[in-house]
Recover the amino acids of this structure.
């Protein structure tokens, strides 16, 4: 477990929690990234701008913090694999109505049976893929 | 106005959380999923950190509200069914996640790195989402037509 970073993980997680509290308390929206992003793909007038600002905020945070970033490593140099993975993630999150944030954080905190189930399933299927990769 | 402001701040905090926890590094995510190798429990601590903040706030402050502070109705899901669609969706999502160590949050946060790999991932993710939307719209229209036809 030499790569384990408990403190920065907890701190980063706490920020995700703050983010979800602010969005839900002030505007009644759930901070699930796949849901927020997929709503941008089929714009409805009254629901477009807040989604764009949320995703925009995520992108901007990268530029603000990028001088402090350690270099990120690619898992595989295959563009085909990234394309297949993206397709699976897009289809899967749309069918299952959520990803790691919506199900794994907000759904679990709300003790939603659906989200707890979904989280167990996607973590298991990801572990199996990594096992055979 | 309150909605737009809270969305911007919330987005900034979300991206910062992704970066601070280093979940934008796919190797970190794979380290968690690779239980037979050098297992790295960090991702579980990210979820734990988020739950420690969100769960009490939700149960003590937000749950009892019918409307948010800006006056909008609370927009959370009331769907409780564990159905085939959920199981299939979560399985496929997990496969894609395990393949390259990316889920939507980290991919969108680090798109500013200009990586062609990330761009391909996000474009094909968008296509996948639209595909499902199209197919399901068609299915519901067909079902409606059948019911109306009778």
């Amino acid at each position: 477990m030499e790569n384990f970073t408990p403190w920065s993980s907890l701190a980063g997680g706490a920020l995700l929690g703050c983010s979800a509290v602010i969005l839900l308390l002030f505007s009644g929206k759930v901070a699930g990234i796949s849901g927020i992003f997929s709503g941008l793909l089929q714009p409805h007038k009254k629901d477009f701008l807040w989604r764009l600002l949320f995703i925009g905020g995520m992108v901007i945070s990268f530029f603000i913090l990028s001088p402090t970033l350690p270099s990120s490593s690619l898992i595989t140099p295959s563009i085909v694999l990234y394309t297949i993975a993206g397709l699976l993630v897009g289809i899967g999150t749309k069918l299952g109505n959520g990803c790691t944030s919506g199900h794994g954080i907000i759904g679990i905190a709300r003790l939603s049976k659906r989200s707890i189930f979904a989280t167990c399933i996607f973590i298991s299927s990801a572990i199996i893929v990594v096992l055979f990769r | 106005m309150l909605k737009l402001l809270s969305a911007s701040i919330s987005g900034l905090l979300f991206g910062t959380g992704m970066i601070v926890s280093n979940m934008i590094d796919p190797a970190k995510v794979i380290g968690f999923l690779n239980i037979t190798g050098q297992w790295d429990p960090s991702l579980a601590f990210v979820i734990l950190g988020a739950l420690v903040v969100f769960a009490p706030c939700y149960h003590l402050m937000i749950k009892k509200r019918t409307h948010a502070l800006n006056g909008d109705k609370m927009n959370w899901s009331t769907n409780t069914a564990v159905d085939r669609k959920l199981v299939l969706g979560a399985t496929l999502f997990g496969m894609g996640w395990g393949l390259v160590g990316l889920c939507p949050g980290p991919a969108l946060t680090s798109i500013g790195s200009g990586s062609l790999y990330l761009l391909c991932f996000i474009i094909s993710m968008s296509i996948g989402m639209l595909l499902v939307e199209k197919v399901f719209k068609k299915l519901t229209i067909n079902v409606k037509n059948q019911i109306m036809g009778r």
